Hints:
By secondary structure, the protein is α/β, with parallel strands linked by helices. Helix content is 40%, strand content 16%. The chain has two domains: 220 residues, Rossmann fold, CATH 3.40.50.2300; 140 residues, Response regulator (Rossmann fold, 3-Layer(aba) Sandwich). It has twelve helices and 14 strands. It has a five-stranded parallel sheet, sandwiched between helices. Helix 5 crosses helix 6.
Amino acid sequence: MPHTAARRALRAAAVIGSFTITSALTIGPSSAADPIKIGSVLSATGPASFLGDPEQKTLKLFVEALNKKGGLMGRPVELVLYDDGGDANKARTFATRLIEDDKVVAMVGGTTTGTTMAMIPVFEDAKIPFISLAGAIEIVEPVRAFVFKTPHTDKTACQKIFEDMKSRGITKVGMISGTDGFGKSMRAQCMKVIGDYGITALVDESYGPTDADMTPQLNKIKNTAGLQAVLNPGFGQGPAIVTRNYAQLGIKLPLYQSHGVASKSFIELAGPAAEGVRLPAPALLIAEKLAADDPQKPVVTEYKKSYETATGQPVSTFGGYGYDGIQLLVGAIERAKSVEPQKIRDAIESTKGHVGTTGLYTMSPTDHLGLGTESFRMLEIKGGDWVPAEVK
């Protein structure tokens, strides 16, 4: 691992290792310096709360730990946090408030693709750096000057899944996708790249975000001759319902899910039906199973330990996206030695080899994510837990 990446990993472990639950988000009234205001709009409640809640907890814990160590550039950091409940209109309203009323220098948030896309014009117009925690490739392609993201893109997830299918000799698949922003985007990206792997989609079904039974769509898939596997791009409760219905119908084909359900809550919602499901996910889900020399191991194991100790809840990749986002921002401010939004933006874009829970980030003027398929791990659910998938 490069020396710079090693130092970042050690710094990340040191900061995250001091996480504790406290009520204050700033150093306190004794500090004479004005706080550095960092904004966040998350879906901490509502249908995407299983994503937004761990993101919110992580950001609060990180800022508390940072302030206990003296803040940033000798100033306290204030996290200005709003909960959009998964509503894109509310998200845009809060984004405007962060800029016009709260005067934030940067933003880490945007739990879903829908809320993120609603907020992007606000931050772009104001020239305030925005690090999104949502998945769709549209967030960073085309590249927007002030917009970055931490999760892998849906396109990268499709590529990782098709790599795994190809290694297993799978060439004919069925698709069942959510019609939410994430599901639609990932389906579209998968359909764009599927032919690159010699794979064909023989059937293409969908479901709405409030649907409670996907049996009709899955029956069509079940009755399609020649299928070798099924792929479900989606997030939220939909994929868990698909997984349960899949088992109820006795479908024995391999089932692939997206990185949008890479959390313990998916396994809990899907129950025994989740056994054997495969999906691409960050290293965080298999922290203890990583090789000792894996450059991500110090970061993911410390984050997992600290988050679970502080919250009493299992770690999820979504909280990890929040951790990577705030770490990238803090690192940029430290390198820029400034809280001027333009200088922060430039420093984020120049990030090289930053070791996060999601992967090693190297950004550029043409890449505002900085992660490739190598940062994904293909996992399988066995015995109610995540394990590295084996090629069969």
